[in-house]
Amino acid sequence: MGNAFTTTVLQLHTGREEAAVDLTGHCETFLAEAGAGDGLLNVFVPHATAGIAIIETGAGSDDDLLAALADLLPADDRWSHRHGSPGHGRDHVLPGLVAPHATIPVSGGRPALGTWQSIVLIDTNRDNPDRTVRLSFLG
Predict the structure, then answer these.
(1) Which pTM does this prediction carry?
(2) d(CA 94, CA 76)
């Protein structure tokens, strides 16, 4: 591994509904602009109510993940954390299940993902429609 390090910050608008936002294209563009070779890509969301998942998108798995999270973390009044919209406390539990980061190997300047894998921001927080995602490459 060399000693190249570069980073950028994405500002994304996820809206007021639960969202699974595919970041794969953003990651590929970042790596190309960075002149990346082989190394590691770290994707980090610095929010207490969002996470990063590596999942299939476009065939329903992204919606299935949001539905599963809704089943596991109902938006009701059971949560001790009570500010914001009803059930917002569940959003603060989300990063315990969907980590706020992922590290992906990079080979030849491209994320070394499986055929159906995508890098996805998972955002269940309807109170914060704007998100920051930090992409960092070490190679």
Answers:
(1) 0.93
(2) 14
